[in-house]
Prior knowledge:
The complex is a heterodimer of chains A (103) and B (140).
Chain A: H1 19-28, E1 34-35, H2 36-43, H3 47-59, E2 63-70, E3 73-80, H4 82-99
Antiparallel strand pairs in A: 1-3, 2-3
Chain B: H1 2-14, H2 21-33, H3 43-62, H4 76-103, H5 108-136
Helix pairs in contact in B: 1-5, 2-3, 2-5, 4-5
Amino acid sequence: MASGSAAHPNGLDPVIHPLPRLRICALLEPVSEEEFGALRELLQVSDSALSKQLAALVEAGYVEQRRAVRSGRSRVWVRLSDAGRRAFRGHIAALTALAAPAD
Amino acid sequence: MATLAEAEQQNIARLQRPARYWPTLGLMLAVFALLPYTRSWPMLLQYLIPPATVIAIGAVAAWKQPSAVRKLRLSGSMTLGLIGFAAAAGVLGGLSTALYAEHGWWWLPAVAAAALFALVTFGGRALDRFWARRASRGLR
Lengths: 103, 140
């Protein structure tokens, strides 16, 4: 698994920058973990589309997944790793700086 | 930034617990505020009836309902809110029990139970809103 990715000179993280991944990180940021199905409902995407985006985040070491059985059903839980949380916050800071009017 | 603002609104909405959650918790705690009334009961009933009532309330409220668990990450000031809330409930319950034992005011546990229910129902909702907003605001 790769750990993180090279940031752009402007501080934007190329792994997080695509909108679907930015939304995934934004939804995972305030929680300790979220269930795959709940995330899919929130994003209103298909299983395969979400899996594809998550795979990119997992590959960068930003997201971790675990499988757990609840109510007799196997479910996948997704969480932002510490590196992912740092990268996301850095990306938001860079976005905010870019969006701010220049003095 | 629009995507983030949208996600923030989504987080605020989804991280708040369902409407049934706080009244249910309020009812459960109110049962404990009524414990002084059980002092004259046989020992076995004193130990069995209150937990059974709490379990029954929880089971009825959760029947065929989606999970009310929110895996919210609590930061420093958010934890303080929870501690203050728990302390207020503990002081209210403890004071009521002590005063009832000392003065035998029959109405006190009932008043404490009603106050505890109101505190948890309304205070809990406010705390939940505060938590959801606070956690979601981390995006900006």
